Amino acid sequence: MTKTYAALLRGINVSGHRKVPMAELRTLLEGLGHTDVRTYLQSGNAVFTTGSGVGEEELRTALEAAVDDHFGFPVDCLVRDGDYLSAVAEACPFPAAGLQGKQLHAIYYSEPADPGRFASIDRAAHLPEEYALGDRVLYLYTPEGLGKSKLGEAVSRPSVVKGLVATARNWNTVVKLVEMTREK
How far apart are CA 172 and CA 103, in angstroms? Predict the structure, then answer.
């Protein structure tokens, strides 16, 4: 049985550093035996189908090793199946349909984030910005966008996310990846 996944690569193609051309990423994923490989934008979003029967962690490990081997630098990756991505979108506690994509983000984590990690953040001091935790995800509402967000900085501090791989996507990308993992 085949299953469709999204690979989320962290910190590539930013300001000309850690370049991973999407055509090469597609070829790399195909070389790992995956099919129906597609990418979205230049920021490290790939969707693929596999019948290998292995889980997200095995797929992540293989992709990270292949990227390091091919490009010569390590890249943290998260791999999530389409059902998970759909569940994240459906569970969003903010009115996503009424917001611009730049105002809402999903920060995906490698494992569940204990709410205690965020205890030092004064939520009231950051209003109207807000966040909510979900299943291996943090929903981040930033009315002025992530680039100007003080709350975004606070929830991303190394002391908060220590030991987790975290990668953010704006809501337009969240929705597009859900669509792409549903396509057959």
Answer: 10
What's the pLDDT tens digit per position in 7-17?
A: 999 988 776 77
Q: What are phi and psi of 92, to 5 degrees?
A: -55, 125
Residues facing residue 137 across a β-bridge? 108, 134
Pairwise CA distance, residues 111 & 135, whole Å: 8
Tokens representing 182? 């549903």
pTM above 0.70, yes or no: yes
In the three-class reduction of DSSP (H, G, I as helix; E, B as strand; rest coil), residue 38 is classed as strand
Segments in the chain forming alpha helices (H): 22-31, 56-71, 82-90, 150-155, 158-161, 171-182
- Which of 8-12, 83-87, 159-163 shows the lowest per-residue confidence on average (mean pLDDT)? 8-12
- If DSSP codes are grouped into helix, strand and coil, which group holds residue 45? strand
